[in-house]
User: Fold this.
Amino acid sequence: MVNSGDKSGQYRRHPSPLKEGSLLPSDPYLKSQAAFWADYVDKHIYQGAKLIWDSKGEEMQKGVEEFLGYLKVLERELGEKPYFNGESFGFVDIALISYYSHIIADERIGNFSIEKHCPKLFVWATQCMKRESVSKTLADPTKICEILIQIRKTNGKED
Assistant:
């Protein structure tokens, strides 16, 4: 039994209730890699995006550069594969695509282009958006952008 305060057993192997074609690879090493990259997304993408919508001027430009750096790390991991899991849509894809509407909004606010700076990631996102389960689930990026602009105005970051 693992004490609930003990995080050391967090990635211990246990029988998975998921069947073939699951969102996580069956190989323990690949599964731990997927967990690492999903954690990277959770730790860096929101915080990186916040550097953009919660700043202005030179500080915003530094935020854009830092955010693009995080995306480029993910783009290198994606490589030439259609999905992070290889040929199939998986756990890391879900982790990152869930931020896509926010990424598009930050792109507009920060005046940069994902297509230009991270072309492989752009192709990946376009492919993910063709999946009905993705396109019907994500928030409208225009609405996200409007909300972020309102937050920026309230915080004195937008004229």
